[in-house]
Amino acid sequence: MSRRPALSLEAVFREEYGQLLATLVGRFGDLDLAEDATSDALEAALSRWPVDGVPSRPGAWLLTTARRRAVDRLRRDQTYAAKLAEIQVEQDRAFQAPSADPVDGGLPDERLQLFFTCAHPALAPDDRIAITLRCLVGMTTTEVARAFLIPSSTAGQRISRAKNKIRVARIPFRVPDRHEMAQRLPGVLQVVYSIFTEGYAASSGENLLRTDLADEAIRLGRILHGLLPAEREVTGLLSLMLCTHARSSARAGKDGEMVMLEEQDRRLWDREMIDEGRTLVVLALTGGSPGPYGVQAAIAALHDEATDAESTDWPQIAELYGVLATITPSPIVSLNRAAAIAMSEGPSAGLEVMEALSTEPLLQNYYPYPAARADLLARLERWSEAARWFERALGLAGSEPEQRFVQRRLAACYRNAPTPEDTPGF
User: Fold this and answer.
1) DSSP secondary structure of 161-196
2) Per-residue pLDDT tens for 250-261?
3) Which residues of the chain have pLDDT under 70?
4) Whole-model pTM over 0.85
5) How much helix, strand and coil, in percent to the nearest 5, is found in the chain?
6) For labeling, which of 46, 126, 249, 339 is most exposed (least CB within 10 Å)?
């Protein structure tokens, strides 16, 4: 046993939760049982580790404890055990049936296997992603809600609906064959990107970044790319994550405060990661019409190539967002395009596009929209208007660094805004 401080328990749990749950689901074939056993193991750790110390192999300790708790539950509940036995028989038949394995050796990562399981077509598309993020990634319901830009209650309903469907329809936990994998791949890519997004810009908490999630998403992206090198969108997603994550070291200052892209010290960017991402983006864009991840990767690569914000090819970035809007129309894509237009044509031009998006329902609770609009108003020295939009952004900012950043910008607007004595009478 090591004597790590109790404060590390949260980090350990966050790191181990998804893999632990995935292993138990694969072993017992029942998501509810796996969740209960995982919760039991975590409760045991909370009780034991502060006294005995964190084990040198916390994951192994949790898995052993969770397996014992699962077996105990089965012994106590014979009805549940009988139902589970039926599910296991179905799984055994599925595994024994001949299938065209997607790649030699199948999927080497247990969690990734279950990502494909939860992408089952019997589940509604949004429900598939919600349950994967909540149960297999370990994101909170609030974090899942932010990924979808929906209320937490709605996210909870999606998760419950998916779990119930898996239970009632007896969806088997097995690796899909080649044909099924192709159908489910877009949903799995969306899950991996959602993990990365939460890692690169945490939706809550005291830290701007959650590098554990970003690193995990890139790890999964590398596995997928190794298994499916001809899938251009897999290549595009990996490129996008690498080109974006390469800037992580410059995103927060020494005090943990958020640093905007144009103010970052680009000497801190990971050039090796950028080079790898730029190589991959060429592959992602070669051989036909580009996919959304490939286009986003191209945008990220353009940012990485520039020596500073002024020399960035903003017109091309704006054009690429226009291409992206034709592939996957979204108010968020339009917002990003507006920001690029503001950099290439001036804040007034960008603000005009943003104002046209003001009634979009998806943007009403989306923190970057009021923050971006306030920023353009501040650049135009329309301080009072900028303050109102920064106030709105402050109410939507998730992480503490984001909140402090908006507070500083808001204070600057208050300092610069004209007082009533400065305003001429009429």
Assistant:
1) HHHHHHHHHT-------HHHHHHHHHHHHHHHHHHH
2) 998 888 889 999
3) 1-12, 14, 78-108, 173-175, 419-426
4) no
5) 70, 0, 25
6) 46
